[in-house]
Every structure is written in structure tokens, then in C-alpha cells.
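Appendix B. Worked example

We walk through a single record from start to finish. Start with the input: the chain for Phosphate-specific transport system accessory protein PhoU, Anaeroselena agilis, length 216.
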Amino acid sequence: MRQTYEKELESLRQEILRMGEIVGQAIEDAVQSLARQDVELAKKVIAGDDVIDQMEADIEDRCMVLIARQQPMARDLRIVGTGLKITTDLERMGDHAFDIAKVTVRLANQPLIKPLVDIPRMARMAQKMLADSLEAYTKMDIALAEKVCLADNDVDDLYQQVFRELLTYMMEDPRTIGQATQLIFVGRYLERIADHATNISEWVIYLVTGQRLRKK
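Next comes the structure step. The output line below is what the pipeline stores for this chain.
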């Protein structure tokens, strides 16, 4: 009985990791679609959001069935509960990739007011945080999870830099307001993706230690 339960938990963990890989690719494709103004790639990201949403629903159902059948306690309950929380954060990341792809479609016929440098850099940082948070989940690595939490400060700082730069563009040339506003939204979406990676890392710490980090 216990062996079957352990297999179900491992299968659940693998499905969460697979969802994480799909979300990571969606973020990569969304930012690339914006930088290249590739509308077809953006449409692929938009269409793929349904897959991510369905995965979240399926994983939630599996967690509920596990809770109902096994009535887990202590660490086992934390494993299932953490799975639910991580899945929610991944789904929200997918939503932000969807939002970025929508910006690509909106700006499709406009030359970019500047080459995108810091936004792709923010994306790489957020993607690294996501990959590291999932690795921390796989290995139950608290040190790596804490490293992800600290990296969020760097993304926040870069977002503020992007915001100030785009605000300057708007002040110097009101014709850029529409596009610059859209790019600020993209920066905000990436900043939120980093926040969700931080959440995942905090759930990993909770899973291993049973202690919740206090938000500062």
C-alpha cells in the first residue's frame, strides 16, 4: 500500500516538473516573440496557455484524490499541499507569458522604440530563477531555494531600471507613450514571474523544514 502511494507521489512530482518545463518554454518563446516581433510565435504561446491551464486542473485533481484516499499527515501532507501551491504559481507564470505574447501582437506593426536589451535580460534572470526553484524542488535543496529568493532583489532592481528608462522615453517624446507603456507592462509581468519563482522556493523550504518564511 505504502509503495503504491510513494509511486503516486513520485508521478505527481514528475508531472509538476513537466509543467514547469512547459511554462519555462512559454516564457522563453513569449519574450523571443516580442524581441523579434514574431507574431506566429506569439500566437503559439497564446494557444499553449490552454495546455498549461489543463495541466494545473489535472494536477489539482490528482492532489485531491491523494488527500481523499490516503489522508496524508505531517510531511506527506506537506508534499501534496506544496504540489498544489507550486502548480498554482506555475499557472500564473504561464498567464504572464500569455500576457507578454499579447503585447507582441499589439505591437506587431510598430517599429520598436529601442532595441530590447534589459527586458530579455530580465527574462533570462526570471527563467534561471524558475529553473533553480524546480531543481531545488527536485533535490529538496534549501540552499538553492534560498539563493533563488535572494535573486529576486536583482530582478526588482532591473525592473526599476527598465521603468525609469521607458518613462524617460515617454517624457522626451509623447508619441512613444503607447508602446513604452506596453513594454513597462512586460517588465512588470517578468517581475511577477520572478516573484512566483520565489514563492516556489519558499514552498520548497516549507516542504523540507515545515517552517514558513516570513515576508519582509
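Two observations about the output. Residues 2-36 form the longest helix (35 residues). The radius of gyration is 19 Å.
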